[in-house]
Amino acid sequence: QQQQQQQQQQQQQQQQQQQQQQQQQQQQQQQQQQQQQQKQQQRQQQKQQQQPQQQQQQQQRPQQQYQVSTILNDF
């Protein structure tokens, strides 16, 4: 009887180890998701920065056009 009990205990220990491994895998998946979120945030930031620059360029263009028209009128 004593021998049988010992064997059962060993089996239980093995099961516990398997559970631990599964938990580790889940943690890794969470980390990957976080990395993806960070990448998305970076892309959004870049887009926002580009927009203000484009607006500035558009404002400068009309001024240049006016200057050209005045020079033609002087001739």
Largest sheet: none
Oligomer: single chain
Please trace the helix and strand order, writing H or E for each element: H
Low-confidence runs of at least 5 consecutive residues: none
Keywords: Coiled coil
Biased composition (Low complexity): 53-65
Region (Disordered): 53-75
Coiled coil: 1-51
Structure notes:
It is a single chain. The chain has 75 residues and is mainly alpha-helical. The chain is built from 1 helix and no strands. The protein has a domain at 42-75. The longest helix has 73 residues, at 2-74. The model has no long low-confidence stretch (mean pLDDT 63). The chain has one helix at 2-74. The relative contact order is 0.05.
Main attributes?
mainly alpha, 75 residues
Note the topology.
Layout: H1 2-74
Gist of the model:
With 75 residues, the protein is mainly α.
